[in-house]
Amino acid sequence: MKKIDLRSDTVTLPSEEMLEAMRYAKLGDDVFGDDPTVIELQEKAAKLLSMEAALLVCSGTMGNICGLVSQTKKGDEVILEQNSHIVLHEVASPAVIGGLQLRTLQGKDGYLITPEMLNDAVRGIDLHYPISSLVSIENTHNMAGGKVWSKEQLQDLYKSAKKNNLKVHIDGARLFNAVIASGISARELVKGADSIMFCLSKGLACPIGSIVAGSQEFINQALRIRKMLGGGMRQAGIIAAPGIIALEKMIDRLADDHKNAQILKKGLSNIEGLITRECQTNILFIDISGLNITGEQFKADLAKNNITVSSRWDTVFRLVTHYGIEKEDIEFVIDVIHKLYAKK
Ligand SMILES: Cc1ncc(COP(=O)(O)O)c(C=O)c1O
């Protein structure tokens, strides 16, 4: 029986074509800057984003650290949405590695930082204050349920950041889900930002790796931070080869994940006691508190049917659709949950 793992799009396995590409990748020593496959991936990524340069890093977390630490000084303040991944799930790396203080804002609809919010959060000039030097946003916003920033919202943020002398970093772990959902190209979405990180290892199905991109000056600095973190990799073409396939072939298919998430939402929406939240991309939050069972019980019931889920808060679960999960799998999940919990 197939295992259906809805915990995250990070569980995706590489395609056969990716594995083949890894086997036959032309390799060099990337710390010396001469791995041709890494160079090809980085150039491709930079072009896709219309940024001067791009850099392959081990993970999204490492990419975010590079983005924040390369563009700030110790003691600076970075502004972020309070439930962003960097705030909740990156082990206080901005503080530990960058000596940065985080100023967190409650995002509108769980994700959005408006120009007004930004203006209010930026410190004035005063001996007592840290220097506000960067704002970091998340698109799509994971904890808000994969919510997508509109182009206008992004432009407003870039403009007000510029006015306030702030750099803008985008945690675009799922940038291409935002591209597919909004119908706006990646280069349009990031135009006006100073740095962007996106993950190859989530919905794009690569086993490892993320990209950071920005100006050449930024990448020169990010390269130093990556090295400092132990992220200088030697024959990294092995990782870059599936990345090239991801950029060429795995972006458009994210639309299938979004469709499957909608099917899942619709299929679960008529179960009394189960609430489905708004879903714009491949992340669906459901709240099962009205079913009168514990989160642990729900998890165990599904596990008996080969379905793996994980909770965010006791009875609130994040279900993520991704490469390897087909429409029939989603229909199976809906059927199982109905059989288990729908009132007859
Ligand atoms: C929004 C967001 N940013 C960053 C990351 C970090 O990526 P990684 O797990 O590759 O470090 C994640 C991972 O789930 C994420 O969801």
Question: Strand fraction band?
Answer: 15-25%
Helix % is 40-55%
CATH structural class of the largest domain = Alpha Beta
Number of extended strands: 13
Rg from C-alpha positions? 21 Å
**SSE pattern:** EHHEHEHHEHEHEHHEEHHHEEHEEEH
Mean pLDDT, all residues? 97
- How many strands, what sense, and barrel or not for the largest sheet? 7 strands, mixed
Q: Which small compounds were modeled alongside the protein? A: pyridoxal-5'-phosphate
Describe what this molecule looks like in 3D.
The protein is of the alpha/beta class and 344 residues long. It has two domains: 14-249, Type I PLP-dependent aspartate aminotransferase-like (Major domain) (Aspartate Aminotransferase, domain 2, 3-Layer(aba) Sandwich); 253-341, Aspartate Aminotransferase, domain 1. It contains 14 helices and 13 strands. A seven-stranded mixed sheet has the order 2-8-7-6-5-3-4, sandwiched between helices. Strands 9-10-13-12 form a four-stranded antiparallel sheet, with helices on one face. Helix 2 (36-49) packs parallel to helix 11, helix 3 (60-69) packs across helix 10 (216-228) and helix 12 (254-268) runs parallel beside helix 14. The protein is globular. The structure holds pyridoxal-5'-phosphate (PLP). Pyridoxal-5'-phosphate binds at residues 10, 59-61, 64, 85, 138, 142, 171, 173, 199, 201, 210.
